[in-house]
Design a protein that fits this description.
9-stranded antiparallel β-sheet, alpha+beta, Beta-lactamase
């Protein structure tokens, strides 16, 4: 396994900075036919897909007619693929999803956490805030799981069991999208308690190339929902929202916890997957902007909506500049 330096973080005073941290990882850029086009580090690096898996976890629901069965809006469908910020419109959307399937928040088994909205906008949560499972960033995905179970009369209480018919259908379908036997995919449990799978990074990139290039099928339905409603997939001041607003209807972007970023570019038929091996999300965002710049899809990112992640300053508690986060990833044509 050969990893590559992706991002450096410096510390200094005045005009002199010294490298303090180096974040290593790998990048794979793959076309819709599964051909590796560009890489850095080890494109076959095995990584858990985390929340980048969400569009593919929604495939059995969409292919089974769940959208029309429950009369879902496009925005509600986007929530099935979301790592949302727990903003009011996210919560309203998840409540609607649950109501349409005859469920409520007590059926959600994702747990709860403080909405990520507050960290994204740099605010403290209200002292009286009491998070519920609705606030969990994965509650939309779980609402979709419950809707699938309600449609087919499957047990609700065990919907996260890897042996549940829903999870078995997801595993098989994920395998087919990435070109592997689903039974061969290493299984783990995600932060929201749902089954999750590890994939070679280039297979994850290929999945996003196929999501972006899809036409007339369930993948294209999900792509359309995600790109039409990026605010539902992400949230205020979040990087996925900024990526998708850079190229409306063309770029689909999805982060995953512990340093995973995926992007699909419809006009190019390409998928990008990035893994920062130490899981550092700050480094991940800066690496992703640099990759897009090296591929020629972003010019002068500091003058775009991607500016917060292009070359972010490091500041201390007083607001004093102490360093910078700078990309050093170098893509190579394969």
């Amino acid at each position: 396994m050969t990893l590559a330096p992706l991002v450096e973080v410096t510390r200094g005073a005045g005009s002199v900075d010294t490298v303090e941290c180096i974040h290593y990882g790998s990048v794979a850029v793959v076309d819709a036919a599964g051909r590796l086009r560009y890489a850095a580090g080890d494109p076959s690096f095995l990584t858990f897909s985390r929340s980048t898996l969400k569009p593919f976890q929604a495939l059995p629901f969409v292919e089974g007619g769940g959208v029309s069965h429950f009369d879902l809006t496009s925005a509600e469908l986007a929530l099935l693929c979301a790592s949302h910020s727990g903003e009011a419109f996210h919560l309203d959307g998840v409540r609607s999803l649950l109501t349409k399937s005859g469920c409520d928040e007590h059926h959600l088994q994702c747990g709860c956490h403080t909405p990520t909205y507050y960290s994204a906008v740099g605010k403290r949560p209200p002292a009286n805030l009491k998070p519920t499972p609705l606030h969990h960033n994965c509650s939309g995905k779980h609402a979709g799981f419950l809707a699938y179970c309600a449609q087919y009369g499957l047990p609700l209480e065990s919907y996260l069991d890897p042996a549940h018919p829903l999870q078995m259908a997801i595993r098989k379908r994920v395998g087919s999208v990435v070109g592997m036997d689903g039974n061969d995919l290493p299984l783990g449990i995600d932060g929201c308690s749902a089954p999750n799978y590890a994939l070679p990074l280039e297979r994850l990139a290929a999945a996003y190339a196929r999501l972006a290039a899809s036409e007339g099928d369930a993948l294209s339905t999900l792509f359309a929902a995600m790109t039409a409603h990026p605010e539902m997939v992400s949230g205020t001041n979040r990087n996925d929202l900024a990526f998708m607003r850079m190229a409306p209807g063309d770029w689909v972007a999805k982060i995953g916890a512990d340093g995973v970023q995926t992007i699909g570019i419809r006009s190019a038929g390409l998928g990008i997957a990035i893994k920062v091996v130490d899981g550092n999300m700050r480094a991940l965002y800066t690496a992703a902007v640099s990759v897009l710049q090296q591929l020629g899809y972003v010019d002068a990112p500091e003058n775009t909506g991607l500016a917060p992640w292009a070359l972010p300053l490091v500041t201390n508690a007083r607001g004093t500049r102490t360093g910078v986060v700078r990309p050093v990833v170098k893509l190579k044509r394969v």
